[in-house]
Amino acid sequence: METLIVTGAAGSIGTRVCKTLAETDGVAAILAIDTRPEMPNHRRVYHHQLDLQTDDLKPVFEGANSLIHLATSFGPSSDGMDAGGAEIDATRRVFEAASAVGIKKIVLLSSAMVYGAWPTNEIPITENADINPNPDFSFASVKTEIENIATEWKSKHPNAEVVILRPTTALAKGQISWVARSLKASAIIDAGDNDPPAQFLHLDDLASAVCLASRGELSGPYNVAPDGYIEAEVCKELSGRIPRLRLKEEMADKLGRFSWRYKIAPTPPGLTPYTMHPWIISNQRLKDAGWQPDYTNAEAYIDGTPAKPWSNMNAKQRQRASLIGAILVGGLITFLISRLIQHLRDEN
Length: 348
Fold this sequence. Notes:
Helix content is 41%, strand content 15%. By secondary structure, it is of the alpha/beta class. A seven-stranded parallel sheet has the order 3-2-1-4-5-6-11, sandwiched between helices. A three-stranded mixed sheet has the order 8-7-10. A two-stranded parallel ribbon has the order 9-12. It is globular. Mean pLDDT is 84; it is low at 315-319 and 321-330.
């Protein structure tokens, strides 16, 4: 019987993973760790409300065989700030505690954003591709750094296994990842002239990938995404064709940074390239290991995107609503741009 540690247990992925593993044969206990008190309720799930940056982790880790590190410092509470340092420090302490108690397997949740969003990206990107995150995007850079921590730990513990999962944009009904939330906030602006395809992963499918990684014979990096992708035009249709404004890349980037700094919108610096260039990933390696997604890209997107008010309107009503929406969005963007220009003038 196996005892597993799950960090970030109160999150949208953590709760799913804990509940699934608690019902899995061969699992004796789940040591659920989070700073939040709302954790999964199950007789095999033992709650530990801890701060990974400051609390002593070794006593809790004692007796565990495997570690699933899902905790992240990126979330709504970190809007307007750089949460990267906290996540790196927490990850380093988690791996140190794992060394101290002799953990034999670690599953680390990273992101497909570590590949970067570049116009030269292949479609799809496989795990053999080099990691090359866009340097201005803290989230991707931090995920790259925690992968480096995991790789270094593996080199010092050759008899242990490390699995790194790199999911694409993940969401589900009533729940949305930090990445999905940030990309959604940027959706009213089309930067540059490119409309890249997109992928959307259901949180249930991500959780099943985590569970497979923790119990299967996996090792190394694995992309997590549904089969294929959806074109930008299809994505716009699924979103109800919300009004959008097309801006030059430089202006879109500055506007996003300004909105982030003053907490107007969750559009972190450096996100713009991920809305302009493809970062489509292949799921073949994970499928070869036995994983199968239950949701397509479109199904995941629809499930995780609330119905728009105009979804039941006829063509004429939608046209009128789109015109009004475009006027409102244009007014908002004009206001933000004027504020940005004034801000730049004040700095000079």
